Structures are given as structure tokens and as C-alpha cells.
Amino acid sequence: MRLFDLRLIIAFLFGVYGVVLVVIGLGFTTAEDLTKAEGVNINLWAGIAMVVLSAVFAAWATLRPQFAKTATTADDLGKQG
After folding, report:
1. Tens digits of residue pLDDT in 20-66
2. Which residues 6+ apart lie within 8 Å of 12 measured at CB?
3. Alpha-carbon distance 81 to 58, whole Å?
4. pLDDT value at position 21?
5. What is the pLDDT of residue 74?
6. DSSP per residue over the chain, as a string?
7. Whole-angstrom Cα distance, residue 56 to residue 52?
8. Model confidence over 59-76: pLDDT tens digits?
9. Contacts for 54-60 with beta carbons within 8 Å, 24 or more apart?
């Protein structure tokens, strides 16, 4: 069943956490935070990377779906491999 494809679950989780980090990076980063990170908005860049990774996993799951071979006849049940 494609609903429980692990790649889609990973894509969803990375997407949610990535969007949260992007929002925090854009709206809640202070000058003190930037000073601590040597001028780099770490939350923003990590969030963007996570959203991109989420898109890669979702595309991978969509373009290369995994289907389990199921036995449809009694002959198929006896075959190995």
C-alpha cells in the first residue's frame, strides 16, 4: 500500500519541520541569534534544506513507486524468487 511508503512519511516529517524552521528563521531570529551564529541564519538555511529534501523524497516516492508482488494463483504461491 503506497500510503505507508516510508519515503512519503519521511518527506512529510522533513516538510513539517522544515516549514517550522523557515518560519522561525524569517520571523523570530534576533540580532543576538545572528551574532551567535556568526551572521548566518541557521534556522532559515536548515529549514530550506529540509524542505528541499522533503521535495526530493516526495518526488522519489511518486516517480519510482514500490509495489510488492502478490501471489494471484496457486502456481504463484509455489514459486520461489
Report:
1. 999 999 999 999 999 999 999 999 999 999 999 999 999 999 898 87
2. 54
3. 29
4. 98
5. 65
6. -GGG-HHHHHHHHHHHHHHHHHHHHHHS--HHHHHHTTT--HHHHHHHHHHHHHHHHHHHHHHS--------SHHHHH---
7. 6
8. 999 898 877 666 666 666
9. 54/10, 54/11, 54/12, 54/14, 54/15, 54/18, 55/11, 55/15, 57/7, 57/8, 57/10, 57/11, 57/14, 58/7, 58/8, 58/11, 58/15, 60/7
How is residue 40 written as a grid cell?
548566518
Instruction: Tally the residues of the chain.
Output: 81
The x, y and z cell numbers of residue 69, run together, are 508482488
